[in-house]
Amino acid sequence: MTHKTLTLNTGAAMPLVGFGTYQVTDPAECERAVSAALEAGYRLLDTAQNYGTETPVGKAVRAVGVPREELFITSKVWFRNHKEGECRASVLRSLERLGLDYLDLMLIHWPFGDVYAAWRDLEALYREGVLRAIGVSNFSPDRLIDLINFNEVAPAVNQIETHLYCQQRAARPWLQKYGVAQQAYAPLGQSRINEMFAQPAVQAAAAAHGKTPAQVALRFLVQQGIAVIPKSTHEARIRENIDIFDFALTEDEMAALQALDTADPMIGTADRPARVESSKSWTSREL
Ligand SMILES: NC(=O)c1ccc[n+]([C@@H]2O[C@H](COP(=O)([O-])OP(=O)(O)OC[C@H]3O[C@@H](n4cnc5c(N)ncnc54)[C@H](OP(=O)(O)O)[C@@H]3O)[C@@H](O)[C@H]2O)c1
């Protein structure tokens, strides 16, 4: 039930449901939440250099003792490390914090700075087997295609903001055309979660299937082949968010949920000048 996967362009299987760790700033709480997620059956863990969660994720992995080959661990390079050589060094530091000797997936977190220099480092680490797959995050289709056109290894994944209010329907055909898997971040709508869950279409589908609004929101994505990485620090919700493979939304329910799309991201706005401008002053946590 919990290990449904999609196949990446590397041939590797990536779990459709993973566990997010953004904003779990207390390391002890993060370790507890990740341990609960592993106990609940999650096998994909999502961390990033800039979340400050690589160390507690590594501790939880060791504490729970799931065999390494059953896990799929993703991290992300922060854009301050987008320099040739420095990207590689930062990946090695990530591995050290995680206590791992390889990562299943390393992403370019944001398309800022010298992305191409960083990508060449990731390509080399991929060829060496230190990174089993490499990918990007927050890339609009134009940036993604350019990266593919002028490099040797195509990204396996684009992790982008995707939820009921921002369904990425314009980006999807491009991702499919280039064989790049879509992984939804903020799949529960993050700060807009309560407003989203109160939508009549969500409430109706939840009532019809005896499921929660969260399960409907996640099922809506997974049913379209989109991977999801919900975050929670509450055990009951952690279990709830992976329990989405025993029901299917009907065509009418899917259509009603599709109608909630505003195509307006709240976080993944790297294609907007003001966002790119502001990146210069973004602070960095753990590099
Ligand atoms: N690549 C990027 O730039 C990027 C950006 C953002 C996020 N991400 C990744 O994507 C992951 C998920 O995104 P996110 O954490 O921003 O947002 P999210 O998963 O959409 O939403 C998290 C919020 O939903 C609540 N929640 C979780 N399960 C629930 C449930 N069953 N019922 C009711 N409320 C529930 C959580 O509260 P509690 O914790 O209190 O339960 C938390 O407030 C992140 O953790 C991170 O790994 C990546």
Structural summary, described in words:
The chain has one domain (7-277): Alpha-Beta Barrel (TIM Barrel), CATH 3.20.20. Helix content is 39%, strand content 13%. The protein has helices at residues 27-40, 54-64, 86-98, 115-127, 141-149, 172-177, 193-197, 200-209, 213-222, 235-242, 251-258, 273-278, and strands at residues 5-7, 13-15, 19-20, 44-46, 72-77, 105-108, 134-137, 157-161, 181-185, 227-228. The strands form 2 sheets. An 8-stranded parallel beta sheet has the order 3-4-5-6-7-8-9-10. A two-stranded antiparallel sheet has the order 1-2. Helix 1 crosses helix 10 and helix 8 crosses helix 9 (213-222). The longest helix is centred in the first third of the chain and has 14 residues, at 27-40. It starts with a strand and ends in a 9-residue tail after the last helix. Bound molecules: NADP nicotinamide-adenine-dinucleotide phosphate (NAP). NADP nicotinamide-adenine-dinucleotide phosphate (NAP) is lined by residues 20-22, 46, 109, 137-138, 159, 185-190, 193, 212, 214, 229-234, 237, 240-241, 267.
SSE order in H/E notation? EEEHEHEHEHEHEHEHHHEHHH
Give the C-alpha Rg.
Answer: 18 Å
Low-pLDDT runs: none
Class by helix and strand content? alpha/beta
- Percent in helix: 25-40%
How many DSSP-defined strands? 10
Query: Widest sheet: strand order?
Result: 3-4-5-6-7-8-9-10
Number of domains: 1
Bound molecules: NADP nicotinamide-adenine-dinucleotide phosphate
The CATH superfamily is identified as NADP-dependent oxidoreductase domain
CATH-derived topology: TIM Barrel
Level-2 CATH architecture: Alpha-Beta Barrel
Shape: globular
User: How would you state the average pLDDT, rounded?
Assistant: 96
* Highest CATH level, the class: Alpha Beta
